[in-house]
Amino acid sequence: MASLVVSGARHLLRRADFAKVLRRHRHKKKWAATEPKFPATRLALQNFDMTYGVQFGDLWPSIRVSLLSEQKYGALVNNFAACDHVSDELEQLHARDFVNKAHSHGELEPESGQTAAPSPASWACSPNLRCFTFTRGDVSRFPPARLGSLGVMDYYLMDAASLLPVLALGLQPGDTVLDLCAAPGGKTLALLQTDCCRNLAANDLSTSRTGRLHKVLHSYVPQDVRDKSRVRVTSWDGRKWGELEGDAYDRVLVDVPCTTDRHSLHEEENNIFQRSRKKERQMLPMLQVQLLAAGLLATKPGGYVVYSTCSLSHLQNEYVVQGAIELLANQYNIEVRVEDLTHFRKLFMDTFSFFPSCQVGELVIPNLLANFGPMYFCKMCRLT
């Protein structure tokens, strides 16, 4: 009888494989101790829920679901390719050139109560840019860009809202231009498409990112054009540019490092919400003020600067603009004027959804029917 009990117990232990379960359990605990408690994407969403829920109020749920949904893209036509043929092909996809459509509306009348329109320089959009998008609610995708008959790529796929800072910069033929934080290169490419750059300095502190910038330039811009535009790619500390080349440029683009909100919700790699990058994230507004101040110092008196981010945070947007302007006034006795971009917002409101309550500048907010952005941009004129 005893032997039957022992035999039955052994049989049950074999079926339960109790020892094996314990080993597996211990193994899982060991590995769990080396993994982050929460992925960076989840930390980013928690952070956004707390901060943007307060900042945007009732708008936040709509922005939130749009950020978590698939992004829309635009196709920036490469003017150095067979551009008319490329435009025809994009039109056959039922996409349309949102820049040309906006310009075809003509100049807008001043709002009631306004006594004068903005100065021509602040009205001007950078010329020669063609960017195709699908209409609101159309979630079609563009096919990947391909090598064209002239040996360069036909078009560049980008968040179409990323073109707005370049358009707002209002380049004129013969301008000397600085792209202070240029990589990965979409906005630099757009600056070259305008055919206005007498000199173009494209800078980014990260040498790996300037490597990507070089790749974009080689894929889209012929060598003779790069030589003609005197494109200079550097990896200097942008915060020191005002000391290196002060009062030197007609137009400066300051597209600063930021929390890259959409990327932070979708990609673990290079995510600024990783716990190891907490200090870096907290220091972003200070870095952004320093970079914008350097860009303003590098601008000639009478020249223009556009500051931009792909973040929704007013701490990285309006507050940075105001902080940099105060810094220049207090430390350098330099006066800077923020340009009114109301007309600009109205020009492109058929394509993008704009936040209506920015203190300064304009903010494209993601919307399921027009899922571009986020993209903040503010245009300034250095007066003295």
From TrEMBL:
A single GO molecular function, which one? RNA methyltransferase activity
Q: Which GO terms describe its biological process?
A: rRNA methylation
Sites binding S-adenosyl-L-methionine sit at C181, A182, A183, P184, G185, G186, K187, D204, D237, D255
PROSITE patterns given for it? SAM_MT_RSMB_NOP (PS51686)
**Which keywords annotate this record?**
Methyltransferase, Mitochondrion, RNA-binding, rRNA processing, S-adenosyl-L-methionine, Transferase, Transit peptide
Q: Where is the active site?
A: C310
Specify the SAM-dependent MTase RsmB/NOP-type domain's residue ranges: 83-383
Primary localization = mitochondrion
Cellular location(s): Mitochondrion
One Gene Ontology CC term in the entry: mitochondrial large ribosomal subunit
Q: Which reaction does it catalyse?
A: a cytidine in rRNA + S-adenosyl-L-methionine = a 5-methylcytidine in rRNA + S-adenosyl-L-homocysteine + H(+); a cytidine in mRNA + S-adenosyl-L-methionine = a 5-methylcytidine in mRNA + S-adenosyl-L-homocysteine + H(+)
Q: What PANTHER family does the entry give?
A: 5-METHYLCYTOSINE RRNA METHYLTRANSFERASE NSUN4 (PTHR22808:SF3), NCL1 YEAST -RELATED NOL1/NOP2/FMU SUN DOMAIN-CONTAINING (PTHR22808)
By sequence similarity, the record places it as follows: Belongs to the class I-like SAM-binding methyltransferase superfamily. RsmB/NOP family.
Name of protein = 5-cytosine rRNA methyltransferase NSUN4
Species source reads: Myotis myotis (Greater mouse-eared bat)
The organism's lineage is:
Eukaryota, Metazoa, Chordata, Craniata, Vertebrata
